[in-house]
Specification:
The complex is a heterodimer of chains A (167) and B (792).
Chain A lengths: L2 E7 L2 E7 L5 H8 L18 E4 L2 E4 L12 E3 L12 H8 L9 H14 L5 H7 L11 H14 L13
Parallel strand pairs in A: 1-5
Antiparallel strand pairs in A: 1-2, 3-4, 3-5
Helix pairs in contact in A: 2-5
Chain B lengths: L21 H5 L15 E7 L5 E7 L1 H4 L4 E6 H5 L5 E3 L5 E3 L5 E2 L5 E7 L2 H10 L1 E6 L28 E8 L1 H10 L2 E9 L11 E7 L4 E6 L4 H12 L9 E4 L15 H13 L3 E4 L2 H7 L6 E9 L5 E11 L28 E9 L16 H19 L3 H8 L8 E2 L5 E2 L4 H12 L1 H13 L3 E10 L11 E2 L2 E2 L2 E7 L5 E5 L8 H13 L6 E5 L16 H28 L6 E4 L2 E4 L2 E7 H10 L10 E6 L8 E10 L6 E11 L6 H21 L30 E4 L17 H18 L13 H10 L8
Parallel strand pairs in B: 1-14, 12-13, 16-17, 24-25, 31-32
Antiparallel strand pairs in B: 1-7, 2-6, 2-8, 3-7, 4-5, 9-17, 10-15, 11-12, 11-14, 15-16, 18-19, 20-30, 21-22, 23-24, 23-29, 26-27, 27-28, 30-31
Helix pairs in contact in B: 9-17, 13-14, 14-15, 16-17
The chains are: A alpha+beta (167), B alpha+beta (792).
Bound molecules: FE2/S2 (inorganic) cluster (FES) (2 copies).
């Protein structure tokens, strides 16, 4: 018992036969072969699967593929354009905000929405804003710095140094 | 500031080079095991036991097999036919792959379902009917040693109890003597609870056996691909899978922290099924399966004692440990070290008497004793010594920083022989602690603490000054399953002067593609951008024991430097030939050889390498390649001085880390940015067990927090903003003077945090708090000392 659906991911249409129970993350990873979004848990806790649906960040392990029909889905693969990397990608790279990289796509998608809604967040707002995404490697310091750097970049402000600071 | 010998362009040691591996990860192009998709691939899911201890009366797969798309259901009895139902652990214990009659812990693998899709495999799993006869499990390690406790490992011939091994080190009598005559003795029972690494990627594999070529390709989440290949050959050699027919590929790994060192039953079942069917088999754990069944860390019950003089001189320590290993000893320790490097627990202090002993027991918990960013029990040891040092300071009425300063091993006393047999290579403990105290304004904080107490507010300051021991290890003492723990590097420089280097280690986020390139750039002067690093494919990389226990830089990093030096020697010969001078007339500066006194006469490394392929001296081997297997002469001894400041809410017992300063000494630094990143991450895996994480079981053996809903991995909100710095005391015996850093912060942070929390409420009579220190635990302790009135 499958259903034919068309998902619009990063502007491209993917038509697939899915069971109604299939999770969106599986449809994205397996049917559309976009493996940049990851799976880190089975309780909607880790945020590794975060994508944007109509501009809002969502845990794609918590939504059925059939529910996402007709919506604009954006994943990490769609961040960079012909002009180059998205500022959030640069921000993560320059601020050493990733180690193993497994949480990174989800965190970047979450940060994109955060900055959209609040272009100039405080450290506290950033920390609460990404508290639905777990990272086991970085300790979050540099993720916070990356989002601050990206905020400056997107507003055309003076860019903070990306050299590590030591006491 | 770190001084660099190479230009920014070459990017050798000391440069905060941005990471080369980032490009694929930030664009969603990483290749993790669940991204591997092979034609004809089948999916495996695993039926797990709801009971901690039970007889299996029957397994009925009829309903599962009736589901279209379910291809097979595999049980222990099926594997038994091929002798594949048991496997060795890395500690030469044994473990069931699938049980034939008894399950020994909750969530143990009972049967495997193979199907054409992930979802159908899960349907099949739900449909397998298992009839159990539950028995009363042994959950308390102390009770496991009772005379009337059931013998859990009745599979072991002649086994009459649940005791696994006894271990001891140090001079028992001498230590007892010091204790008997000491002015002051402090003693504390403490539990370092069972925790889980919970890397965000779980474990998994794709096992692909080709029946035509008789080759197995195994994509798997492993930190030690070569060792795993050898283990597979040992387990499955008798059915024809010999080592040359096995290729282990460790693709990008989404965090390891030690949890991806062992061989889990799922891997073996996937191999067995692929071997029998010829189809590629994918197995990816759920998070809950990962938390509930994979190897855990810690679970040490320690009775710690310290003796000293009334004016604050430490004289002796004595630790007694009961180690709960669960159903099997599946640690990943070097074979001669059943407690890992626990004997580092005499710490950073200068005294001559210590005795430590440990007994390990079996219980009905998942197997292990593996790792949580520290596999070798250094965390447990450091927690004990640093808690005792604080308790001792309190008892003799000294400031804990002052007492540490007075007891530190002095920098001129290295190498220093510890009472448990280590030769500490180097350190400058006074400088580290002083730097941390200055950075955080220690004396100012002590004043503020007094003022706040007068207002009924609680401020606590906690110190931890630890010595780590990493870089396993020298081959006379260190092996796993008999394989010596050296590591390797192979460098090939192409005619145009660009290189590829391969290693026996495997990064799981540590940034090897950048740091190894920097080590080679430092030695050869080839820009690090032009050095490609490869790891994780046993068909191409030289043999090595993998990445864990902060061993990559001390072992493989050293191998890289040594292989590069072999090439530099060759380069010198070629340069002499090209410049028509003798080798003695040449001098090296990063990137070129020049003639002494005539610097305009020079040959760049690129010119030299080109000549190695086009115009090498007669009698010399052509090409430009070298391999080195590095066997360390000693371990390395990184150290750190951490100070934590906490504020405790006097009403809610909420604990807030106000500041945390970490000064690490990991010797020479390859990439300060990456070292700092490692420290940030390690500190977060230090606050986690100190305040949040613990795997909890009830008396019936049920895990009470086996999902990410209940097991609290710190988010950005729980994690403080870390402040880090360093002192640099190079390892004298190491080719590049580096010591390794990945685990230091996880080892050093918990006692700093707990010492701070205890310090915040010490004036109310609290002497010790067990980790994780939660607000509720603190509330109860404050109730016990009469600060809060008991309501019942
Ligand atoms: S996979 Fe963890 S929240 Fe979606
Ligand atoms: S970088 Fe590894 S989980 Fe975030």
């Amino acid at each position: 018992m499958t259903k034919k659906i068309t998902l619009k991911i990063n502007g491209a249409e993917h038509t697939m036969e899915v069971e109604p129970r299939m999770l969106l993350i599986h449809a994205i990873r397996e049917n559309a072969s976009l493996t940049g979004s990851h799976i880190g848990c089975d309780t909607s806790s880790c945020g590794a699967c975060t994508v944007l649906i109509d501009g809002k960040s969502a845990k794609s392990c918590t939504i059925l593929a059939v529910q996402a029909q007709g919506k604009e889905i954006a994943t990490v693969e769609g961040l960079a354009t012909a002009e180059g990397l998205h500022p959030i990608q640069e921000g993560f790279h320059l601020n050493h905000a990733l180690h193993c990289g497994f949480c990174t796509p989800g965190l970047m998608m979450r940060a994109v929405e955060l900055l959209e809604k609040n272009p100039n967040p405080t450290e506290d707002e950033i920390r609460w804003g990404i508290s639905g995404n777990l990272c086991r490697c970085t300790g979050y310091n540099n993720i916070v710095s990356a989002i601050q750097w990206t905020s400056a970049k997107m507003q055309g402000k003076e860019l903070p140094s990306t050299e590590p600071k030591f006491v | 500031m770190i001084k660099c010998k190479t230009s920014k362009e070459i990017g050798g040691m000391g440069h905060s080079k941005k990471r080369k591996e980032d490009a694929r990860f930030i664009q969603g192009k990483g290749n993790y095991v669940d991204d591997v998709k092979l034609p004809g691939m089948l999916y495996m899911d695993i039926v797990r036991s709801p009971y901690a201890y039970a007889k299996i009366k029957s397994i009925d797969a009829t309903a599962a097999l009736a589901i279209p798309g379910v291809v097979a259901v595999v049980t222990g009895k099926d594997l038994e036919k091929y002798g594949l139902h048991w496997m060795p652990t890395l500690m030469s214990d044994t473990q069931m792959v699938l049980p034939t009659d008894t399950v020994m812990y909750q969530a143990q693998e009972v049967a495997a379902v193979i199907a054409t899709s992930r979802y159908l495999a899960r349907d099949g799993k739900e449909a397998v009917m298992v009839d159990y006869e539950p028995m009363k499990p042994v959950m308390d390690p102390f009770k496991a040693l009772d005379e009337d406790a059931p013998v859990l490992r009745s599979d072991q011939e002649g086994k009459t109890d649940n005791h696994i091994w006894h271990w001891e080190v140090g001079d028992k009598e001498k230590t007892a003597n010091v204790f008997d005559n000491a002015d002051v003795v402090v003693k504390q029972q403490m539990h370092i609870p069972r925790i889980h690494v919970a890397s965000i990627e779980t474990c998994g594999c794709v096992a692909s056996y080709d029946k035509v070529t008789n080759h197995l390709t195994m994509y798997m989440t492993t930190q030690a691909p070569h060792a795993i290949r050898t283990v597979i050959a040992l387990v499955a050699g008798h059915v024809g899978l010999t080592e040359e027919k096995i290729r282990v590929i460790s693709p990008d790994i989404g965090g390891g922290f030690g949890g991806k060192v062992p061989v889990y039953p799922g891997y073996v079942i996937a191999i067995a099924v692929s071997f029998l069917t010829g189809a590629p088999i994918k197995w990816i754990e759920d998070r809950s399966e990962n938390l509930q069944a994979d190897s855990f860390a810690r679970d040490y019950h320690i009775t710690a004692e310290m003796a000293g003089t009334k004016d604050g001189k430490i004289q002796a320590t004595r630790f007694k440990v009961l180690a709960d290993h669960g159903y099997t000893d599946a640690s990943a320790n070097p074979s001669k070290f059943p407690t890992g490097l626990f004997s580092i627990g005499t710490g950073s202090y200068d005294y001559g008497a210590a005795y430590m002993e440990a007994d390990a027991v079996y219980t009905n918990k998942p197997p292990g004793g593996v790792a949580y960013r520290c596999s070798f029990r250094v965390t447990e040891a450091v927690h004990a010594i640093e808690r005792m040092t604080d308790m001792f300071a309190k008892k003799v009425g000294k400031d804990p920083a002052q007492l540490r300063m007075e007891n530190f091993i002095k920098k001129e006393d290295f190498p220093w022989a510890s009472p448990t047999g280590w030769s500490y290579d180097s350190g400058d403990y006074h400088a580290g602690l002083q730097k941390a105290m200055d950075a955080i304004d220690y004396h100012g904080l002590r004043k503020e603490q007094i003022e706040m107490r007068a207002e009924g507010k609680f401020l606590g300051i906690g110190i931890s000054t630890f010595t780590e021991v990493v870089g396993a290890g020298p081959s006379q003492d260190f092996d796993i399953l008999g394989i010596k723990m050296f590591d390797s590097a192979e460098i090939r420089v192409h005619p145009t002067g660009k290189a590829i280097a391969r290693f026996g280690t495997k990064s799981q986020g540590q940034g090897h593609e950048t740091t190894y390139a920097q080590i080679i750039a430092e030695e050869l002067g080839i820009p690090m951008e032009h050095i490609q690093i490869e790891e994780g494919d046993t068909d191409t990389a030289p043999y090595g024991l993998g990445t864990y226990a902060s061993r990559s830089t001390p072992t493989a990093g050293a191998a890289a430097a040594m292989a590069a030096r072999k090439l530099r020697d060759k380069a010198k010969k070629i340069a002499a030939h090209l410049l028509e001078v003798s080798e003695q007339d040449l001098e090296w500066e990063p990137g070129k050889f020049f003639v002494k006194g005539a610097p305009e006469k020079s040959k760049t490394i690129q010119e030299i390498v080109f000549a190695a392929y086009t115009n090498h001296p007669e009698g010399m081997e052509g090409g430009f390649e070298a391999t080195h297997y590095y066997d360390p002469p000693n371990l390395t001894f990184p150290s750190g001085a951490y100070i934590c400041v906490v504020e405790v809410d006097a009403e809610t017992c909420d604990i807030k880390v106000r500041r945390f300063v970490a000064i690490d000494d990991c010797g020479n630094i390859i990439n300060p940015m990456i070292v700092q990143g490692q420290v940030h991450g390690g500190l977060t895996q230090g606050i986690a067990p100190a305040m949040y994480e613990e795997l909890i079981y009830d008396d019936s053996g049920n895990i009470l927090n086996g999902t990410f809903m209940d097991y609290l991995v710190p988010t950005a909100v729980e994690s403080p903003s870390w402040e880090t710095g360093h002192t640099v005391t190079p390892a004298p015996h190491h080719p590049i003077g580096a010591k390794g850093v990945g685990e230091s912060p996880t080892v050093g942070a918990p006692p700093a945090i707990v010492n701070a929390i205890v310090d915040a409420v010490a004036h109310l009579g609290i002497k010790h708090l067990e980790i994780p220190v939660t607000p509720f635990k603190l509330f109860k302790e404050l109730q016990n000392v009469g600060y809060f009135k008991k309501t019942t």
